[in-house]
Design a protein that fits this description.
By secondary structure, the protein is mostly helical. It is built from 3 helices and 3 strands. Strands 1-2-3 form a 3-stranded antiparallel β-sheet.
Protein backbone atom coordinates (compact mmCIF):
# COMPACT_ATOMS: atom_id res chain seq x y z
CA UNK A 1 0.00 0.00 0.00
CA UNK A 2 1.50 3.31 -1.02
CA UNK A 3 1.24 6.46 1.10
CA UNK A 4 -1.64 7.87 -0.92
CA UNK A 5 -3.67 4.67 -0.52
CA UNK A 6 -2.82 4.57 3.18
CA UNK A 7 -3.97 8.17 3.65
CA UNK A 8 -7.23 7.47 1.80
CA UNK A 9 -7.90 4.42 3.96
CA UNK A 10 -7.12 6.35 7.14
CA UNK A 11 -9.61 9.04 6.11
CA UNK A 12 -12.25 6.41 5.26
CA UNK A 13 -11.83 4.80 8.68
CA UNK A 14 -12.03 8.19 10.41
CA UNK A 15 -15.19 9.02 8.44
CA UNK A 16 -16.83 5.72 9.41
CA UNK A 17 -16.16 6.33 13.11
CA UNK A 18 -17.25 9.96 12.90
CA UNK A 19 -20.49 8.82 11.25
CA UNK A 20 -21.21 6.62 14.28
CA UNK A 21 -19.96 3.17 13.29
CA UNK A 22 -20.88 0.82 16.14
CA UNK A 23 -18.01 -1.49 17.00
CA UNK A 24 -17.48 -4.32 19.49
CA UNK A 25 -15.41 -2.59 22.15
CA UNK A 26 -16.46 -5.18 24.73
CA UNK A 27 -15.52 -7.67 25.89
CA UNK A 28 -11.87 -6.72 25.91
CA UNK A 29 -9.97 -10.03 25.72
CA UNK A 30 -8.37 -10.89 29.04
CA UNK A 31 -6.81 -14.22 28.06
CA UNK A 32 -4.73 -15.45 25.14
CA UNK A 33 -7.64 -17.69 24.15
CA UNK A 34 -10.06 -14.74 23.97
CA UNK A 35 -7.51 -12.71 22.02
CA UNK A 36 -6.96 -15.61 19.61
CA UNK A 37 -10.73 -15.93 19.14
CA UNK A 38 -10.94 -12.36 17.87
CA UNK A 39 -7.97 -12.95 15.58
CA UNK A 40 -9.74 -16.05 14.18
CA UNK A 41 -12.80 -13.91 13.39
CA UNK A 42 -10.61 -11.37 11.59
CA UNK A 43 -8.83 -14.08 9.56
CA UNK A 44 -12.18 -15.22 8.13
CA UNK A 45 -12.80 -11.78 6.62
CA UNK A 46 -11.85 -10.51 3.20
CA UNK A 47 -8.66 -8.53 3.96
CA UNK A 48 -10.20 -5.52 2.21
CA UNK A 49 -13.37 -5.51 4.36
CA UNK A 50 -12.23 -2.59 6.47
CA UNK A 51 -15.62 -1.92 8.03
CA UNK A 52 -15.94 -5.50 9.33
CA UNK A 53 -12.36 -5.40 10.62
CA UNK A 54 -13.17 -2.22 12.50
CA UNK A 55 -16.37 -3.63 13.99
CA UNK A 56 -14.84 -6.91 15.19
CA UNK A 57 -11.70 -5.30 16.59
CA UNK A 58 -13.68 -2.57 18.33
CA UNK A 59 -12.11 0.55 16.86
CA UNK A 60 -12.92 3.92 18.41
CA UNK A 61 -11.45 7.27 17.51
CA UNK A 62 -10.49 8.28 21.04
CA UNK A 63 -8.60 6.88 24.04
CA UNK A 64 -10.58 4.14 25.78
CA UNK A 65 -11.16 2.74 29.24
CA UNK A 66 -10.23 3.96 32.71
CA UNK A 67 -6.56 4.13 31.72
CA UNK A 68 -7.35 6.03 28.50
CA UNK A 69 -5.48 3.49 26.37
CA UNK A 70 -4.68 4.47 22.80
CA UNK A 71 -2.87 3.05 19.79
CA UNK A 72 0.21 5.14 20.58
CA UNK A 73 1.04 2.86 23.53
CA UNK A 74 0.13 -0.41 21.83
CA UNK A 75 2.91 -2.83 20.95
CA UNK A 76 1.56 -3.14 17.39
CA UNK A 77 1.62 0.59 16.64
CA UNK A 78 4.31 1.79 14.24
CA UNK A 79 4.78 5.45 15.13
CA UNK A 80 6.48 6.71 11.98
CA UNK A 81 3.94 5.03 9.70
CA UNK A 82 0.79 5.59 11.81
CA UNK A 83 0.14 1.91 11.26
CA UNK A 84 -1.20 -1.10 13.18
CA UNK A 85 1.23 -3.92 12.49
CA UNK A 86 -0.99 -6.70 13.84
CA UNK A 87 -1.15 -8.95 10.74
CA UNK A 88 -4.88 -9.61 11.08
CA UNK A 89 -5.56 -5.86 11.01
CA UNK A 90 -2.70 -4.21 9.09
CA UNK A 91 -4.41 -0.82 8.79
CA UNK A 92 -3.42 2.81 9.23
CA UNK A 93 -4.37 4.24 12.63
CA UNK A 94 -4.13 7.52 14.47
CA UNK A 95 -2.17 7.67 17.73
CA UNK A 96 -5.28 8.56 19.78
CA UNK A 97 -7.45 5.74 18.41
CA UNK A 98 -7.95 2.43 20.22
CA UNK A 99 -9.17 -1.10 19.55
CA UNK A 100 -9.82 -4.04 21.86
CA UNK A 101 -6.74 -5.86 20.55
CA UNK A 102 -4.60 -3.24 22.32
CA UNK A 103 -1.51 -4.75 23.89
CA UNK A 104 1.40 -3.36 25.84
Amino acid sequence: MNSEQQRALLLRMADLMEAGLKTQTEPVPETEREFAGILDELRKLDPNDIKAKMVISGFVDHPYGPDKQRCMECMYYLVHREWCDLPELAVPVKADWWCRLWRI
